[in-house]
Amino acid sequence: MRSSLRPLSLLVVLAIGAWLLWPPARPENGVAGKSASTAARSVKHVIRFAPGGIYFPGTLPQGVGEPLQGLTKVVAAFEARFPDTRVEFINTPVLREFLVTQLAGGSAPDIVTVNVEDVWVDTQKNWYVPLDRYLEAPNPFVAERDPRAPGARQWWDMFRYQAISRGKKGPDGRNYCISLDMVETGIFYNQTFFAAHGLKVPGTWGEFLTLAERIRRLGKTPLAVNIDALADWGQDLLFDQIYQEILPGIDLKKDPERDAYQPAYLDPDEIAFLYRKGLFTRRDPRYVEVWRHLHELVPYITRDLITADVVRDFVNQDAIMFWSGTWLTGRLDADKGVGFKWNVFYLPPLTRKESPYAIGVPMCVIGGSGTQFEITNSAVSDTDPSLPFAERIKRSERLRRTVQLLQFICLPENTEKIVNEFPILIPNIVGVPVLPQLAPFERILERRYTSTKWAYTFDLRFNDITRRMLLLFLTNGIDLDGFLAWQDSNLRAATQNFIERKRPDFGPFEREWRRRAPVRAHYRDLPTPP
Amino acid sequence: MISAPTRARLRFAAGCHVLLLPSMVLLLTFVYLPVAWAFVKSLYRFEIGGQAEFIGLQNYIEYLTIDPPTWPSMLNMFLLTAFAVLTRLTVPLVVAKLIHSLPAERTRYLYRVGFLVPIVVPGIAVQLLWSRLIYSDYGMLSETLRFFGLGDWTRGWLSDPHTALAALMFMGFPFAGGFEILVYYAGLSAIPESVNEAAALEGCTGIRKFFRIDVPLVLSQLKLILVLTVIGGFQGFEGIFVLSQGGPGFRTMVPGLWMYYNAFSYQRMGYACAIGVVLFAIIFSLTLFNLRYFRSAEEIQGHTS
Predict the structure, then answer these.
(1) Are residues A326 and A238 part of one domain?
(2) Do A460 and A345 share a structural domain?
(3) Averaged over A232-238, what is the pLDDT?
(4) A489 contacts on B by Cβ (under 8 Å)
(5) Which residue in the set B48, B139, B160 is minimally distant from A101, CB to CB?
(6) Quick one: A228 and A353 in the same domain?
(7) Alpha-carbon gap: A374 to the closest alpha carbon of chain B (Å)
(8) A301 and A382 share a domain?
(9) Which of A181, A202, A386, B145 is deepest in the core (most CB within 10 A)?
């Protein structure tokens, strides 16, 4: 009898335990895979929307604050306007591997959020919808209520940072994204520590290194940073500094629309061509100089470049500066452990004193378009797959509704709800105010753009190998020569792969190269073609 | 004319075939066909969503003669596997022997359960635990060193080229895996009591008995663990993927992970298939070698009797 009661008593104990530990009821925050509005209705279009980690409904921005609800509210209003449409939020992994397989299978979310440079790699596969024809047409939601408001004539006019937004046009001359906001990077520094030790914001690269040395001698890590920042931003900043002088002689492709923001941007096809002319190799002293300067930071940066928690290092005052971006402003504001004043400065320029190839121009901006929404091939799934992609785009009703969702999001009152819910990014829609915490970054955004984005120049293999070998180089596992040998073979393989995949026509570049020979004649130390 | 017993045997065999058929069809569809497909596609240059182009053995030539990570990753794979073989063939056996030597069955039972419970923790959780709690900047290892005033010795255990591979090897310390312990324990329990008694009468006890009697009689178990460890070591990469992504540089890269990166990150499917085929060839050869030359206790007995 006693033994037969044992399972029963165990069940009672488990039931009481479960009752005691039952989670308290929480307000609805918007959940992955669920519609913003649950009202029952006849639905013709289900738009699957992957808004990315920054605005995903119900999540805590940067792990602090209240769960986000801005996008849920905007989408609910859209669904109320179009009762035949339902929007599902999809929480996709950050992994590109996931997206690639989904795109290939035609089952990716209709709207995704990735850096558009990643999109450029695959444009020949018809995975993404070019948005030019919609951007050049009126935004219907603006036009219907005020024919003179920005966006009523063409959607493009709604974007505050016009040049940056248009600068996201791909090398094939098409636009694949809309930029809802802007992001910026900078050096966060402990202003209280600086004042206490008589340290000043540096004006040159040399002064920056001297400052770092002084902080190191005070027993602190001067600059907390991780490998991604160094491989991506560090490489681009120093490349831009060192090659600035010779850009007029090597920038062979001109596009007036992009040039407003990127006056001398080197596209992947230009880089591939220039590599064949001997640039960006071990024989190119400027290229060697880029990496040499990056290595100058080694004594002053975080020892662990992979797992270092740069914010924690900064908040704990183990590190006096850290290299990051706008997205951490809110987190620092909310962190009660920050017992000091902090501010932001931008990396100072290299001068002739520090490098024979530098001309002392201010460092370019690392930032620009933040959240970039793209529409995928899934949006045209209501059309006949055997039709050419361009024809499917013309015929798809579903695509029209997907574009309308983005147009609706771009209304100032909607963007404000989404972007200004937490101080992470600077809104890119005319009429939406910038939160005061982000004001210092707005000034940085006025700088010119980088000469190229190496991390997005070629395929992901190139980027991955660069990052890997740079980590090895910066942890002294390989010397400069060894690193350059790797980069040489890496670039050779990447250019070869690029030529095979994209089949670029180098004829116009060759003619332009010859035409600019007199300009290049004034430059010293240019490598000769192999 | 077929006799009745033969007919019955054939009927029985036909029944077995019918029952085996669904499994075989599924196996064929989801295992053999993809493997055959990988062999074929390894002769093509193709990427996800792109056109395929026949290039013959070009992928193999590139992998075996040009691609810089090939040989360092092979070396890493052999080192990691050798270390795993060494630890899995020794530590769990010693632990199993110690448990087996305990006089009280209840205590033996408690130890067995204690060592077995960690098996239910998913591997990925264990790897993340090592990554975040032990090897990270503020992890147990660095904090312990700082506590003893040895802050200068701290480093990015997984990002430092001098420690990354060792850090991976030591993941799982003290290497007393529950599965291996159970297998060895079963082997030790299967040793006939008469053998133990005879050894005791001959004065063969302690370490001498362990090496002279126990180890030879658990050779079958050792062989099983060896085969599984080698296959796991050559195929597995998820731990490295989680902990170091094969870096810094290629210091912890292994061919399996390089295959994964080529397939899904770089979209070079044909090339990844070629790496897979090479790996298959290596594992297949080693398994054959093992089966051919590493004989179990039963085989030795059969051979000598």
Answers:
(1) yes
(2) yes
(3) 94
(4) 68
(5) B48
(6) yes
(7) 18
(8) no
(9) A181
A8 CB-near residues (< 8 Å, 6+ apart):
none
Which residues are bridge partners to A188 per DSSP?
A322, A344
A218 and A301 share one domain = yes
A197 — phi, psi (to 5°)?
-110, 15
Q: A495 lies in a domain? A: yes
Between CA B164 and CA B181 the distance in angstroms is: 28
**Domain topology for B42-304:** MetI-like fold (1.10.3720)
Q: Which of B55, B65, B265 to mutate to test the interface with A (most CBs of A within 10 A)?
A: B265
CB–CB contact B250 A478 (8 Å): no
Contact A304, A226 (CB under 8 A): no
Return the structure tokens found at B169. Answer: 């090897």
**Distance between CA atoms of B43 and B3, rounded to whole angstroms?**
52
Distance from CA of B84 to the nearest CA of A (A): 25
Q: Give the DSSP letter string of B79-101.
A: HHHHHHHHHHHHHHHHHHHHHHH
Task: Print the domain residue range for A66.
Answer: 45-158+372-424
* Contact criterion met (CB below 8 Å) for A494 and A271: no
Residue A112's DSSP bridge partners are A374
Identify whether residues A81 and A143 lie together within a single domain: yes
CA-closest candidate to residue A373, choices A131, A107, A44: A131
> A361 to chain B nearest CA, in Å?
33
For residue A420, give Cα distances in angstroms to A54, A222, A424: 12, 32, 8
Torsion sign (Cα): A120, A126, A128, A133: positive
End-to-end Cα spacing for chain A: 93
305 residues of chain B, pLDDT tens digit each: 678 888 899 999 999 999 999 999 999 999 899 989 999 999 998 888 778 889 999 999 989 988 888 999 999 999 999 999 999 999 999 999 999 999 899 999 999 999 988 888 888 888 888 888 888 878 889 889 989 998 888 888 888 899 999 999 998 888 888 899 999 999 999 988 888 888 888 888 888 888 888 888 998 899 889 989 998 898 889 889 988 889 899 999 999 999 999 998 888 899 999 999 999 999 889 888 877 776 655 565 555 44
B246 Cβ under 8 Å from any chain A Cβ: yes
Whether residue A246 is found in the same domain as residue A146: no
Token reading at A486: 């790797």
Query: Which residues lie across from A87 on neighbouring strands?
Result: A47
Query: Which residues, at least 6 apart from A132, have a Cβ–Cβ distance to it below 8 Å?
Result: A174, A175
User: How many domains are contained in chain A?
Assistant: 2
Same domain for A246 and A304, yes or no, is: yes
